[in-house]
Amino acid sequence: MANERTALIGHGVYSVQNESEMSGSGQQGNGSVHTSGHSATPRSLNTFFGVIVPTVLSMFSIVLFLRTGFVVGHAGLLQGLLMLAVAYFIISLTILSICAISTNGAVEGGGAYYMISRSLGPEFGGSIGLMFYLAKVCACGVYVLGLVEAILNIFGRDPGSSVSEGIRVLPQGYWYTVLYAAVVLQLCLLVCLVGAHMYSRASFLILLVVTVALVSVLVSPLAVRPRDFTISHQCGANGTCVYNTTYTGFNSTTLRRNLGPGYSLDYSTNTVMSFATVFAVMFTSCTGIMAGANMSGELKNPSVAIPKGTIIAVFYTFCVYVILFILVSSTCDRVLLIQDYGFFQRINVWPPFVIIGVYCASLSAAMCSLIGASRILHALALDQLFGMPLAPAAITSKSGNPWVAVLYTWALVQCVVFAGQLNIIAGLVTVFYLLAYAAVDLACLALEWASAPNFRPTFQFFSWHTCLLGIISCLVMMFVINPFYSSASIVVLLLLLLILHYRSPTSSWGYISQALIFHQVRKYLLMLDVRKEHVKFWRPQVLLMVANPRSSCQLITFINQLKKGGLYVLGHVQLGDLDVLPTDPIQAHYTFWLSLVDKLGVKAFVDLTLSPSVRQGTQHLLRITGLGGMKPNTLVLGFYDNSVPEDYFLQDPVFCPGSRAQLSGRGGNDFGVDLASLQAHFPPVRGTECPRCLSAEEYVGIISDAIKMGKNVCLGRYFFQLEGEWAAPKSDGAEWTVDVWPLNLLQPESGGYVDVCSLFLLQMACVLNMSPRWRRARLRIFLCVEAALGDQGWMVKEETLRDLLGKLRIRASIKIVPWDAVVKLHRGGQEPSTTAPGVGDSGEMQPDDRASPPSSALESFLSGVNGLLMEHSAQAAVRFLYLPCPPADSSQSQQYLAQLDTITRDLGPTLLIHGLTKVTCTEL
């Protein structure tokens, strides 16, 4: 075939409608994006420099040198190791998910956001991506405040002395802390504006410096003898607290004293610590596992580098933290650990080692977070999920650096540093990261549960059990750390999810929800056993045959209100023969029909077929439409008459370019089908001189076929007069009614109101009355009686009908309509048993072998019936009439349609119904 050698589907971050515009354009300042497989930003980083180095530096950050003693001092060695084990257990499960997703295809710029969004779709990806961006912003603020804290430990003025001595010249206080943080942040901004490559080249040198400082910390207990220290902190406005403490060197007694917890007052926040608050601070060391993933846009081979580099970096940092925890708990008094964050400097063989290490690690982590956050924001802007507010963030420099996104991020971090102390916002950072980790596990879990054939990651050391355990672990620890922050972050996430769902962004990434829905629906369809159907749970499942939507949109909308949660299918027959065509022309039409469904806002499926005739195509659709227990039980057709149809596209504002409804995006996604293309696809309505593609015999044959197949049949007429969904509701105070005539008007002698077809009429009218738009309408049932039967006769009929309505729980008023004069016209001097042509006593099709009234009498009778309907139902919003069976002889099709035309002429929206299904039940 012609398309068997098409290229692989691309993975670029662009939407369907912009694909052709952006192809080959590369990275541009107006926010356009690269095409599949080609990145405007050069990829030059390998596993070591692109993943291992930034991940190690991010995980060391401030905790390594400034909070190791804080964790061990408050929690003790045993609980500290437990915290470390829990934290690394959580991130290990997340790393398995990251490795699986990152090895399932090409990973572009945006890191974790890219992986989540391309796995879960735009709604989940955009909302979680923005939350992850906020987590990176808050983490950057934590690192900046940690660096300021380290600077003040060396250069800050002693709170217990009124005179500055030596290098302690920097005044301390809340606003001074914010000022120093702003200066540090300005330095980070300058580096990030130059670009990520400058940081990546410098990061290796920073790692060397941090490694030297770490080695000095590890060897210092072997060279430094025990020492005593005096530590002072400002207590209150004018007081100073002085603590005497000791560095003991390796000592078993010190180790035993530091084994258990000793939670006490934190001197920086003046709050008593607990397991949750200490864990929140300690977990900030675990927020760097995606530092390498966030550099995916600069990695040569991200699918290989991200799993390999992340696992190596995490294992290395875990070993370092375990050694440090044991080291400090064996050598330092608990008071020293609690009251001095920078105690490593006091016990080091050469204190400047620690000072340089702290500065380098904190500054590197801050820059890494700023760069990573800006890349996430840039990816969000390119995907256009949040519209204009983030649009400027898509602008890049000539070298590909998203400098506007960097400025956005810098401004937000500047707001975060107003917290003043890193311990204050550590809980928020941890909650944000745990939520992001849970999202990554969710993405992997969804892909695994969806059982999509294209989910084939080369990394196999994961399962849905690890993903689910990772989600549960993250959510539990979130609420252990801070229930308020956790609840608030989830609420914000859900709000973002709803906003994106309402915006309905179009993407070519695929929607995991569709894969999951398909997987589950298939199972439920197999469980939906037609042998277990019961009349109590019957609902209309409709196949509406549409020739041209331009003239049928009102009927499409009306049937959507009539389906009551049942299956609704729009069917269309394209005339043609596949034998003489090179390809199937139907497949290209589905997108336009689905776009029409979106524009109209109806909940319907679309089923198209190619057939030499409309009748044969309708038979195909009646047989094969639906699956299992979800198959149409009712066929709906437009009425067959000679009137010229109106063009609905010229009436509804949603089909008018530039209208308010069109600009508000009522139709949702267009998936590449704009309004002009949609209008051009459907041909203009049939004119006066245009021949009909469907003969009267074929139309009546379709009705007969449906009845033979056991399907209920509805014919809709004058629905173009029905108010559209866009029209304002009636405001003249007139009563809105739905009229039901449950008697076979072509057979007055039948007189039955409780046969299957009549009950089907009542049920359909009740279903319509239950829909939101028609709930205010009043249901009226017309009881036609003959005065010749006497008062007692029609009163008995009314009472019987009223009792039936009560049993069926149908709220309706009964209207008595005398029609003696009309019945006389029907009899025309014949015996009362005489019937209309082709209509049997039981309503079933049978040969017309009995006498018929004269044609003039029949015409007068039909006109009389029409006049009766006009007299009593002229003001109704819609009418439900009994549809007699079509004649068995096809030569009488014209006469049958002429009778229906005469009865319903000028009535307004009318639905002729022939029901074969038992739909009512009086049992509980």
TrEMBL record:
Locations listed in the record: Cell membrane; Lysosome membrane
Query: Which ranges carry the SLC12A transporter C-terminal domain?
Result: 554-641
Q: What is its main location?
A: membrane
Membrane topology of this protein: Multi-pass membrane protein
List all membrane-crossing ranges.
45-66, 86-107, 128-154, 174-196, 203-224, 272-293, 305-329, 349-382, 431-450, 462-481, 487-504
Domain Amino acid permease/ SLC12A per the UniProt entry, residue ranges: 50-543
UniProt region (Disordered), positions on chain: 19-38, 828-857
Recorded hits in InterPro entries, A to Z, give: AA-permease/SLC12A_dom, SLC12_C, SLC12A_fam
Question: What cellular component terms from Gene Ontology apply here?
Answer: lysosomal membrane; plasma membrane
An example molecular function term from Gene Ontology annotations: potassium:chloride symporter activity
Sorted alphabetically, the keyword list is: Cell membrane, Glycoprotein, Lysosome, Membrane, Transmembrane, Transmembrane helix, Transport
What's a GO biological-process term for it?
cell volume homeostasis
Which family is this sequence assigned to?
Belongs to the SLC12A transporter family.
Q: What is this protein identified as?
A: Solute carrier family 12 member 9
Q: Which organism is it from?
A: Anguilla anguilla
